[in-house]
Amino acid sequence: MSGINPAEWDARIKLAACYRMVAKLGMDDLIYNHISLRVPGHDDQFLINPYGLLFDEITASSLVKIDTRGNKLDDTPHAVNVAAFVIHAAIHASNHDAACVLHTHSDASVAVSGQEKGLLPLSQFAMRFYDRQAFHDYEGVAIDLDEQTRLVRDLGAHKVMLMRNHGILTVGRTPGEAFMLLYYFERAARIQLQMQAAAAAGAELVMPPHEVCERAARQFWELQGDILVPGEREWPALMRQLDRTDPSYRN
């Protein structure tokens, strides 16, 4: 694409890679769901998927640039999902530090979104989110602009929000951070469902005490020891994997 500066093109490549990784791990939903990334240097503009393309079809040049009012800023024939605009514009227009907003209907996350307490501290994967998950009650398909205020209110300063009976939303300073938060949450949710199935068959669940769960959560969020921001170590490796298997996302 002509006329795109290097910073935006780099952002497009990383966002396209995020779409491909979500598809690669089976956490996409055909042509639905969406991931957005602020355009570098423009707080009121973001990139998002063209409505109608599968996640494994997304490329850097196919991404659509829109502003927080819903205006397309690219010469493209592609439309943008209305629900995608409602959800993503709300977060990008808020004061949240999220550059990347990721929303999926990944199976295990949807399953725990319908449980009163959401994700439980039943595994080390889950400890990162102990008392650090937001909840947004289901209001129907997110196509009404007045839901935006409640989405922003419910997310607050959190980086992960369960949209009840609907899906999950993660936010990050980079696509790598948003993706890895989704990955770790989904792993934790799957483990929770397996443990709950075992408990239904008679097994007794062991849940660490509050003090231990809180200590583990602080270790993750305060980057204690050699812990880094999610994606800082993992994301370059994932992009190298994509480059080996299907580098077409860079087009």
TrEMBL record:
Residues 13-193 form the Class II aldolase/adducin N-terminal domain. SUPFAM superfamilies: AraD/HMP-PK domain-like. InterPro entries: Aldolase-II_Adducin_sf, Aldolase_II/adducin_N, Aldolase_II/adducin_N_sf. It comes from the Bacteria. Gene3D superfamilies: Class II aldolase/adducin N-terminal domain. It holds the Pfam family Aldolase_II. Belongs to the aldolase class II family. This is Class II aldolase/adducin family protein.
